[in-house]
Design brief:
The structure is a single chain. The chain is built from 12 helices and no strands. By secondary structure, it is mainly alpha-helical. Helix 6 packs antiparallel against helix 7. The longest helix has 34 residues. The two termini are 24 Å apart.
């Protein structure tokens, strides 16, 4: 129960953040734009093919990219100072003076901050749902809820990463730098490394059939795993890296269901390292 107590207090503290309110508004506006884009895509398909597009899947496809960018930012902004901020201010010693272990504090921070991120996602997607009814007039509630659940899971993964990073340092500046550096690495450097390896191994950057190892490497980022998890839930390959590169028979690491495994690894490894480092740290 100690972790739950920490989570309740942390949720109340983080929920009052002006940064969270601002990011939630931005996220809501993006989902509203996604609803409009889904409506436009549906009209386009109706004109080109003589039949309406599946509005809910259109919205999922329209929202995957902005959610893939905004959810990590929200989670990292909410989570990077979870432990480091307490250590920097000295309040962590007081918190640990209560009947809480260091593990309780870390788990409680994850639960509390994950709940805050989940609320932000729910608010944003509720706006998108309203927009979909306004612009399209129909929606599959079940499909939309499934997409929301997967996105909340995606946010939870990044909260684990952020709190794990925060547990490794006593400085919020270093924790913020680590969070920003991680974003740069995952969004830009990862793909450049993959392209460099592709050129070294294959001698070209453009080919008709991309090798399995290249597609597998690209599929191992948490953002790509988010797309794979969506594909596994909806049975739609358009959300995966394998489909993006025209691979009809994807390797194991690029299979849609394996996206959940990748997300679990990205959540547990940074968290495990953070717990180990925090457990032996001199406060």
């Amino acid at each position: 129960m100690s972790a739950i107590t920490v989570a309740k207090k942390d949720f109340a503290d983080a929920a009052r953040s002006r940064k969270l309110m601002g990011l939630t508004v931005v996220f809501a506006l993006f989902t509203l734009g996604g609803a409009f884009l889904a409506s436009w895509a549906g009209d386009l398909f109706a004109e080109l093919e003589g039949e309406g597009a599946e509005s809910t899947l259109d919205l999922v496809f329209a929202l995957q990219t902005p959610a893939g960018y905004l959810v990590p930012i929200i989670a990292l902004v909410i989570g990077y100072a979870a432990i480091a901020g307490e250590r920097e201010s000295g309040s962590l010693k007081f918190l640990l003076g209560l009947p809480h272990t260091r593990r309780d504090v870390v788990i409680g921070k994850i639960l509390g901050r994950s709940a805050v991120v989940a609320v932000s996602i729910l608010v944003g997607f509720l706006v998108g749902l309203i927009g979909l009814f306004v612009f399209v007039g129909s929606v599959s509630i079940v499909d939309y809820l499934l997409f929301t659940v997967v996105t909340i899971l995606f946010g939870f993964v990044y909260v684990c990463i952020a709190v794990g990073l925060s547990s490794m340092t006593r400085s919020t500046t270093r924790a913020a730098a680590g969070a920003f550096g991680l974003i740069v690495f995952l969004w830009f450097i990862w793909s450049f490394i993959a392209l460099g390896l592709l050129y070294l191994v294959e001698g070209s950057l453009w080919m008709d059939d991309y090798p399995d190892w290249y597609v597998s490497l690209l599929s191992l980022s948490p953002d790509a795993a988010y797309g794979s998890a969506i594909a596994a839930v909806f049975g739609e390959g358009q959300f995966t890296m394998a489909t993006a590169y025209g691979v009809e028979n994807p390797p194991l690491l690029a299979e849609p269901w394996f996206g959940f495994v990748v997300l679990a690894v990205w959540a547990l490894v940074p968290l495990g390292i953070g717990l180990w480092q925090f457990g032996r740290a001199d406060l």
